[in-house]
Amino acid sequence: MNTFSKALKYATTIFLFTILFGVLTNLITNKDLFEFEKHYPVIFIHFFATPFIAIYFYTKHTVDNPKKTLKTVIKSSLLIFTFTYLAIYVFLLLTRKEDFSLLNIVSFFNGILSVIIFVFSRLIYYLKTNRPVSEKDYTNVSLPINNVVLISLGVSLLYVFIVSILGNGFKLSFWLLYFFTTGLFTSFIMYVSILHIKKRSLNTYKRNGILLSVYIINTFLISILIPLYRILFQEGSASKIMQHLITAGPFYLMCTLSIHTYFIYLANKKEKEELKQVGITASLKYLQLKAQLSPHFLFNNISVLTALIEENQGKAVKFSENLSNVYRYFLEQEKQDLVSLKDELAFASEYLGLLKVRYEKALNIGNNAINNKEPYFILPMALQQVFENVIKHNEVSIENPINIEITINEDYLLITNNKNPKIGMENNLQTGIDNIMNRYAFFTDEKVIITENELNYTIELPLLKIED
After folding, report:
1. Which terminus of the chain is more solvent-facing, meaning fewer CB atoms within 10 Å of its CB: N or C?
2. CA-to-CA distance for 95 and 74, rounded, in angstroms?
3. What is the rounded distance in angstroms from the CA atom of residue 240 to the CA atom of residue 264?
């Protein structure tokens, strides 16, 4: 599903839920608290356009990076505020008889409200699309109580600022104390719930059940406690419950949502730190594996050159020249993690030329993969190690020549040779092949496949494709 479809689906869900909530509120209170016909464009701006913009321009990596998150939220909030402010101003000019100034409190309040809804939408979508928090996360991640208090205080100050815009009879000290106290209480409920989950081994369904219960309790039950108390013990009506739910419910939801999101942020941060450490360890191990190639390659070929000098100086000179060209390629590719199959096959031909200098007709090569057109990649020097393994474990002579065939089958490069095992080599460890297998494990889950029978030995190397 593309970004536009996701944003449209999410915004539509929020909009329909808002309409349903408004209808139920009007039915319960027997009052037209949500004047849909009169305020439909305003409701559409707040609960469809704003969530749509929030999700359409959502990028998850910025949520997990505090600096990028702050920068993105500020820029997006200014955009949302400006859009809503101007849209409400135009709406007022078209629907009201009196003239409205461009600088008016109604547009300002609606702009702030859109910013809050925007932040809500981002937080909820982050929770929805985030990876499931595992039991390991609850065990390893600690939630600092001082940060919980600071988050609660921050949300309270923001909400008091919103309430202060509503106008007459506002008492700053009262509302600040009221929202901070009740906000801290709801945040503490979420905090205690997370601690409860941390101390107990609970499955996913039980953990989600506890968190869902916290959201319901904080958003709905706590919102109706004060007006319910007034109905039972003082004067009041049922409509006061809905009015207080509409006024205070979003505040309690934001407190709960903020603590929950903060905990998930800490879990993701912890996981990234662990993965980074694993990556450093794996990288060092991979470099160690690659470091085995250079001395191993040079040592073996110097040994061959020494033997050729004693046998045939002409062959030794030609071998030395070929070795220089091959080793130059080796040094060039040593820093590369992957090379194109075309380059590796070209190198393989050069390396096989070295072997042909020594073994001549005792070694026969068939390369049917050289004309491949697919953009495959392979480990550098992998073929050299395979050929080296063939020579190491087999007698190579005119009487018993070794035939090597290179072919491609689907996404594998097959190297097959007939078997003429050296005496005493049957149980010898294949260090070169083990090195190839270990290096491949860093790039793909596909395995190096080895099959053999009494006559032939085949190794299949995975061919990789680099995605854009």
Report:
1. C
2. 31
3. 35
Question: What dihedral angle (degrees, nearest 10) is formed by the CA atoms of 356, 385, 432, 358?
Answer: 10
Closest CA to 456 of 366, 408, 390, 409: 390
Residue listed under structure tokens 């042909």: 356
- Which of 115, 30, 25, 28 has its CA nearest to residue 73? 115
Phi, psi (deg, nearest 5) at residue 121 = -60, -45
Q: What is the pLDDT of residues 305-330, one digit of tens each?
A: 777 777 777 777 777 777 777 777 66
Total length of the chain: 468
- Residue 303 exposure: Cα atoms within 13 Å on the Cβ side: 8
Rounded to whole angstroms, what are the CA distances from 430 to 148, 152, 414, 437, 449? 57, 62, 18, 11, 14
Q: Please give the Cα distance from 362 to 364 (Å, whole number).
A: 7
Tell me which residue of 38, 41, 80, 37 sits closest to 57, measured CA to CA: 80
| Cβ–Cβ < 8 Å for 187, 144 | no
Q: How many CB atoms lie within 10 A of CB 191?
A: 22
- From 454, 326, 442, 307, select the one nearest 384 (Cα to Cα): 326
Name the token pair of 357: 């200098």
The band of 293, judged by pLDDT with boundaries at 50, 70 and 90, is: very low
For residue 223 the two structure tokens come to 């919102």
Residue 468: is its pLDDT beyond 50? no
